[in-house]
Recover the amino acids of this structure.
DNA sequence: ATATCACTTGGAGTAAACTCCAAGTCAAGG
DNA sequence: CCTTGACTTGGAGTTTACTCCAAGTGATAT
């Protein structure tokens, strides 16, 4: 005999289970739902019951978020998803644009990382030989190039 | 004869010149100074006069900011810088820690970018063949692997 | 001399993304 | 029946990083 309580209907997770699975707090999951970042989550007796589908949606959201897509854009994406087949073109557009953004971001990070690596080397040298040993910027950059084979542009 | 006005003392930039050079707004530069992210900028007749030194400081700040170091940490770094030689060890520490963070961030971005690339392929395929052609997740992932030689882990 | 213009200050306001809280509900165990 | 505990809601508060504003100053152009 089928039960209507969420405990018994076989598949579905409570909010606390979803928190464990995703690493989000319950407040954040509720906030995301309110903000339209998740497909409408089913209720049983007033409580949220998450499906595996919901979990995958959350994963995409996480991925988009980690790569810096603002919540408003994620929301837009989710709204497109709900509109089904006819929004595929727009979703493709959105993903392509975001992919380009992510690549740009990675390039920026790469360049900055090089400069930070130089700073690490700089302070290592300064720690051993004193700050005066690295006072002359041009000479220090040249020395860095020689010692590490890497260059850094100012 | 030496003048005391900032226009005549040879080296130094006004805030608007610095804005052009760095891309920041005047408000942001003032905000950064107030927040302790820059060494104390010299004044001439009440106006800020930026040096090349200041410019380099701003560049470092930009670099740290772009890689996600919060302003509070940047402020701490700048305070260490002002303490001279005896803070070199701490500055090294800070830079090393941040470099590790940046590397972690790049790894995350790489993984997410792979998933987004898959989504792009997914919607390209869906656009040509309809959403039903990519309905089965496992089959679609396999097809993606075959067609692109790339894998994506869920 | 006066108007213009870039600058000054302190402080208030904004946007994004949570994060916390109070008050209430609901099912299960003792 | 009563308590417990995980959940519900709406709404207020927080943090970060700016961004804007009003009122004022000081040098230069007409």
């Amino acid at each position: 005999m089928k039960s209507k309580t969420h405990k018994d209907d076989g598949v579905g997770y409570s909010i606390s289970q979803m928190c464990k699975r995703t690493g989000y707090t319950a407040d954040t999951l509720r906030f995301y739902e309110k903000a339209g970042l998740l497909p409408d989550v089913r209720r049983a007796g007033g409580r949220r019951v998450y499906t595996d589908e919901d979990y995958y949606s959350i994963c995409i959201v996480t991925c988009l978020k980690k790569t810096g897509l603002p919540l408003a854009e994620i929301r837009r994406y989710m709204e497109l998803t709900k509109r089904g087949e006819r929004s595929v073109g727009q979703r493709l557009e959105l993903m392509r644009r975001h992919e380009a953004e992510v690549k740009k971001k990675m390039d920026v990070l790469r360049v900055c990382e090089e400069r930070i690596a130089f700073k690490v080397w700089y302070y290592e040298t300064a720690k051993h030989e004193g700050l005066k040993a690295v006072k002359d910027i041009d000479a220090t950059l040249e020395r860095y190039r020689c010692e590490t084979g890497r260059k850094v542009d100012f």
In short: Strands of chain A lie at 42-44, 47-49. Chain A touches chain B at residues 56, 59-60, 63-64, 66-67, 84-85, 88-89, 91-92, 95-96, 98-99, 102-103, 105-106, 108-110, 112-113, 115-117, 119-120, 123-124, 126-127, 130-131, 154 (CB under 8 Å). DSSP finds six helices and two strands in chain A. Confidence is low (pLDDT under 50) at residues 1-9 of chain A.
